[in-house]
Every structure is written in structure tokens, then in C-alpha cells.
Amino acid sequence: MMVQEHRLSKAKACRIAGLSRAALYREPTDVIERDAPVVTALNDTVERHGRWGFWKCFQRLRDQGHAWNHKRVHRVYCSMKLNLPRRTKKRVITRERQPLVAPDSVNQMWALDFMHDTLYDGRKFRLLNVIDEGNREALRIECGSSIPSSRLLQVMEELIEFYGKPKAIRMDNGPEMTSAKFVSWAERHGIELRYIQPGKPNQNAFVERFNRSVRQEVLNAWLFDSLAQAQQILEGWRIEYNTVRSHESLGKKTPLAYLPRVVNAEISTFKLST
Asked: Can you name the residues that pair with 194 across neighbouring β-strands?
């Protein structure tokens, strides 16, 4: 087209189009027809040896007398989606098992964990649950469409201002808890971080049992229209959980009746996050 309309030489037209002059004179070939023998040979091999990888299949074709090079065979092999998934070893963080013993006073050990739920319109949101293992008191239930490490630090700062500083925090190995921000924050405050072993949620049993109560008594019982509504209902349930709901593990007492605490009286409520 460029040669006829613009009266260019074939060499110049090929340079403008980025093609070699050989491509101009070479007749187009049907790739499917050209690779048909390779496809047939591979199908015959895979039909008999379904778990063979590429190199075993290629060596079998060579033993059968086919002279195709490995690049061509591998291209056809991948286009037929015969390449097997590579087995990779999953990296697992090594953690020491931490003893699960209820402290005899508050602010010795806090435990935190995340939960997930869905609003009525289908939007997903997260919950951050923080409890004190000493008296099983629910310190915070934070709702949000996203709770990154920066928001986690904000919540922890508010809790420390209200309840005082814990000596240690028990949690899993989620990205928010293992982030450099959270680790450096704990070092600045002199708080020990006790990570449970991966895949062992029973090592964080106190907050896992609390999560079950949240799921059964609130999340499964309500349909939330908005994050603000979910936060309001969960906050009301948290107060009732600490002051009205009895616990068999605490001798059928409420958390605050079992182990009262002294809090900052200047701060009466938390700001509800939406």
C-alpha cells in the first residue's frame, strides 16, 4: 500500500513499517498447519504419559526420530497448555509457642484479631477486636472497610490513653501486625509482641472465643446498612458484654465485676469510626 500510494521503494517502505525485506516476499504460512505434526506427536506422548514434564516429552520425541528443536516444541507445548504447575515450597514463619495462661491482673496481656463480614448491600468490611486476657474485657471493636497498620496504630494509641499500657500483646502473623510500623511502635512503648505459631489459632484462644460471641450474637443476628450502624450496634453490644453478660469461665461474673480497672475518667467514649 505504501509502495503504491506514496510511490516509495520497497526497501524504504519496509524500513518505515519495521519489516525485513524477506517478510515482503515470503508467502504467509498457516501456523496451525505448520505445527500440526508437533501437536500430534505431543498428544500421542501425553496421552500415554500424562504426568511427564516438557523435557521428558521432548526426549521421547527425539527418541522417535523427530528433529524439531526444543524451542519450537516448547512453544507448541505451552500453547497447548500442557506445562505442569511448578511445586513451590510455601514460606512459613517460625514462631515459638507462647504459653496461654490468663493473667491475674489487667493490662498484663492484650489480645487482638481481625474478623470479616458483609453489609446488606454486599460491601465487605473488617472488624478489629481487642480484649484483655486478664478479665476477658472487650476493649475495642473497630469497624472499617479497611484497617491498615496506620489505623491499627491509631486504635492502639487511643486504647493506651484510655486503659493504660499493656505489658504484652498476643496476635497472629497478619501483615498489619508484622509490619515495620507496628513493630517499631511496640518497641518505642516497651510492649512485648507475642506472635502465635502460623496455623495455630488455638494459641490465641481467648480472642478467638470472643470472636465466636461477636459472630453469633451480633453479626449473624443483624443486617447492617452502613459501617456507622454496624459500629454503633457493636459498641452497644461491647458495653453490655463487659457489664451485663456473665461468663462461665469467670465464675458467672461479668468482666468488670471479675477484675475491675481504673481508666482515664476524662475520656468517656471513643470516637466511632466509619
From this structure: 170
H or E stretch at 153: helix 149-163
Coil vs helix vs strand at 231:
helix
CB 102 within 8 A of CB 95: no
* Cα–Cα distance for residue pair 203/197, rounded to 1 Å: 8
Give dist(CA 164, CA 152) in Å, integer. Answer: 17
pLDDT digits (tens, 9 = 90+) for 121-174: 999 999 999 999 999 999 999 999 999 999 999 999 999 999 999 999 999 999
Nearest to 206 by CA among 168, 159, 158, 263: 168
Global pTM reads 0.66
Closest CA to 152 of 197, 113, 118: 113
Confidence (pLDDT) at 252: 93
DSSP helix/strand/coil, 114? strand
CA dist 246 and 239 (Å) reads: 12
Mean pLDDT along residues 97-103: 87
Reading phi first (left if > 0) and then psi (alpha if -120 to 50, else beta), residue 221 is in alpha
**pLDDT band per the 50, 70, 90 thresholds, residue 120:** very high
Number of Cβ atoms within 10 Å of the Cβ of 65: 6
**What gap in Å lies between CA 21 and CA 1, rounded to an integer?**
15
CA dihedral 88→92→94→97, nearest 10 degrees, is -140
